[in-house]
C-alpha cells in the first residue's frame, strides 16, 4: 500500500454539534476516527421529547457548570447548563435555528478570520438545512403562543415569516431542528447512521484530560483515567468551556497562569480562555385567568421569539426575547400567592449583542479541579441598558389586549411595584445565561489569536479547535446553527490540508 492510500487518523473530542459533523465528514472521507465523549449515550427520554427539556438541567447529561460570583449581576453564581452526552448541548437546548446576521460573519472576516464572510458561510447553511438536518417551522402554535404573536403586533412589531431569510427584525415562529415532534441534533443526523462503520470508534464516558504534544505536534490525548489515545490529528470540539480547559491542562495557555498551577508550559498562548462572552436573558412572568395548560408531549414550551433594536441607531437587532408557554419561576424569590403552580407564560427578555467580556481559567491541573468561569456579565453598561429595554418591551407586550384581555394576563414578575425606572436593578438581580458561551479560543490572523482562520491551534501542529469557542464575536441569535457551520468548514479544512500535493 502506498503512502497516499494509508488512511489518516483523527481523534475528535466531543460529540456535540460541531464534533458530530466533523466526525461524519472524516468518516465519509475514509479517515480512521475515534470520537471521544465525556458523557454517555442519549438514552434519557427527556432528550427526545421537546416538552421535557427543562428536566435535563442539573441531570446526569448536564455538566452543571456555575460561574464565579458575578460582580455586576448582584453577586450571583449563574448556572451554565452544557451537554455531557452524545449530542452535546444540542441534546439539551430548545433546538432554535438562527443563522444570525450577515454582518456577523463579515465582521469576523474584517477582524482577520479570512474565509468566514457571509458569502462563504451562506451556502454552508443552505447545505446543512437541505441535507441531513431538518430545520422547520411547519408545526402548529399553541393558543398562548398565537396570542403572544398577536400582542407583539399590537405593540407595533412586524410579523417576520422567515428571520433566516436575510432580515432578523420582527416577531417570528421559531425554526427548529425537529421531526415528528422529536428532537433531531447533529449526533442523530450525522453520526448515528454511520455509528457502526469500520473506520469509526465511539468512546463514551471518557473525559479528556489533555492533549499529548511531542516535538511541537499533537499526537493524541490523555484520558482522565491516565490512558492514552493516539492519532495523526487531534480535534477539540468540547465547546467554549471544555476546549480551552483541555488546552490549559495541556500546557497551552497564558504562561503565568500555567506556572502558578505547576503545569509545564508547552506553548505560551495568552488568549486561551479569554474573550468569553454569552447572551443573557431576564424574565418577565405573567399569570393568567384563562388556563394555558401544561406542556404537551412533542411540543416545545417555546415556539416564538422576536428580534428588536433597543436603539434606532443600531445596524442590527441587539435583543432577542424568547417566549415560553409556562411561567419560568426558576430561582426567583417566592411571592405569596404568585410564585408556584398555576397557569401563566413568560416573555424572556434577551440580549444578543453583549459588550461585556469575561474569561475561563482552570483552578488546578486535574479534571476534577473546578473551572473558574467569569462571564463578566453586565460589566458593560450598554448591556444593562439593552436588556432593560427588552424587559420594558416585554412588559408592554404582556399588557396588550391579546394577552391582558383575552387571557387575563397579569404581570407577576417584576411586578407592578417595580417601576420602569428601576428595571436595571431587576436585570442585575435576575439575568441568566442564554446558553450561548463563545469566544475562548478566538480565531484570527493576528499573533494573539488562539487558532488561525483554518482553526489550527497556533504553535502546535496537528491540533485544531472546531466549535463555538473559535468565534471572535458572538452571532446575533442562538449559536447552534453557527456551530454547525463551524463543524462543516472545520472538517473541510482538515481534509483540504491533508490532501496530497498534486
Proportion of residues in extended strands? 15-25%
Based on the coordinates given, report the CATH architecture of the domain at 3-43 and 185-275 and 438-498: 3-Layer(bba) Sandwich
Overall, the morphology is globular
What's the end-to-end separation, in Å? 18 Å
CATH topology of the domain at 3-43 and 185-275 and 438-498: FAD/NAD(P)-binding domain
Helix content: 10-25%
Name of the CATH homologous superfamily of the domain at 3-43 and 185-275 and 438-498: FAD/NAD(P)-binding domain
- Pick out the low-confidence regions: none
* Biggest sheet character: 7 strands, antiparallel
CATH class of the domain at 3-43 and 185-275 and 438-498: Alpha Beta
Structural class: alpha+beta
- As a whole number of angstroms, the C-alpha radius of gyration is 22 Å
Beta strand count: 23
Query: Roughly what is the average pLDDT, rounded to an integer?
Result: 96
Determine the number of helices (DSSP H or I, runs of at least 4 residues): 12
Plain-language structure description:
The chain is α+β, with helices and mostly antiparallel strands. The chain has a domain at 3-43 and 185-275 and 438-498: FAD/NAD(P)-binding domain (3-Layer(bba) Sandwich), CATH 3.50.50. 24% of the residues lie in helices and 19% in strands. The strands form 7 sheets. Strands 5, 15, 16, 17, 18, 21 and 22 form a 7-stranded antiparallel β-sheet that branches. A 5-stranded parallel β-sheet has the order 8-2-1-12-23. Strand 13, helix 8 (255-260) and strand 14 (267-268) form a beta-alpha-beta unit. The longest helix has 19 residues, at 480-498. The two termini are 18 Å apart.
